[in-house]
Amino acid sequence: MFEKKPKKRLVVKVGTSTLTHETGKTNIARIAKLTSVLADLKNEGYEVILVSSGAIGVGTGKLRLGERPAETKQLQAAAAVGQCELMFLYDKMFSEYGVVVSQLLITSDELYNEESKRHLVDTFNQLLEYDCLPIVNENDSVSVEELINGDNDCLSARVAVITEADLLILLTDTDGLYDSDPSENENAKLITFVDDISDDIRGVAGSAGKRGTGGFITKINAAEIAVNEGIPVIVMNGRKPTDIYKALSGENVGTYFKAVKK
């Protein structure tokens, strides 16, 4: 499935539903497992960039708000609190494996302005040269557009493109893309391979989850961005981060979106 290349640069995106419990509070055990896997992949020789959602979700839990805020100013405040907590956890857990992390908070300006994008690429490349693990999130406390309309799935795809990654892995709360909604249809079948993102594929994508802003349609959009630039995409369940090893060894895990040859 995944064809390894000498560079072996990975972008891994993890969503809010993977990082938090149903209670809205941080899923510490899962973050710990994810960091151990990513640290081990670095030891194996991969370059890893982590795109992490969860600032609002973690902030909501830490502030004991009970549910995701509705007002923009409340979302921005929750993001500010949650981003600190997330980076504290990542720094603490990765440091146990000797991995130095860095934080990059990005808005659409950096991705679409050529000069800003060039500086961003230089930063990524220098951090990777220093053997750091960059952790990326949207700057939700500043950029209202991203806060309301954005999603880290497409952000991760654009990061994969500008860093010329070999593979984009999207970790979510389902096993991949199904031919119908598995929560409503017990006979729904997992689509393991997609070689063309057609209207039919878009038609089976679901709506947003209750703890995040995206849904499967945002993963389809992200996959389209990446595969059209020659980067394959795997969408898989984030409950078992160790399944990343299976995906990288070529096993059928989740849904694989084939890259368009450039």
Number of helices: 11
Order of helices and strands: EHHEHHEHHEHHEEEEHHEHE
What is the approximate shape?
A: globular
- Low-pLDDT parts are 207-214
Helix content: 40-55%
Radius of gyration: 17 Å
Largest sheet: 8 strands, mixed
Specify the structural class: alpha/beta
Multimeric state of these chains? single chain
Task: Please give the structural blueprint.
Layout (H helix, E strand, L loop, with lengths): L8 E6 L1 H4 L8 H17 L2 E6 L2 H8 L9 H24 L5 E6 L1 H5 L1 H16 L3 E6 L5 H6 L2 H11 L4 E6 L4 E2 L11 E2 L1 E2 L4 H5 L12 H12 L5 E5 L5 H6 L6 E3 L5
Helix pairs in contact: 2-4, 3-4, 8-10
Main attributes of the structure:
globular; two-stranded antiparallel sheet; 262 residues
Explained architecture:
The protein is of the alpha/beta class. It has helices at 16-19, 28-44, 55-62, 72-95, 108-112, 114-129, 144-149, 152-162, 199-203, 216-227, 243-248, and strands at 9-14, 47-52, 101-106, 133-138, 167-172, 177-178, 190-191, 193-194, 233-237, 255-257. The protein has an eight-stranded mixed beta sheet with strand order 3-4-2-1-5-9-10-8, with helices on both faces. Helix 3 (55-62) crosses helix 4 and helix 8 packs parallel to helix 10. The model is unreliable at 207-214 (pLDDT under 50).
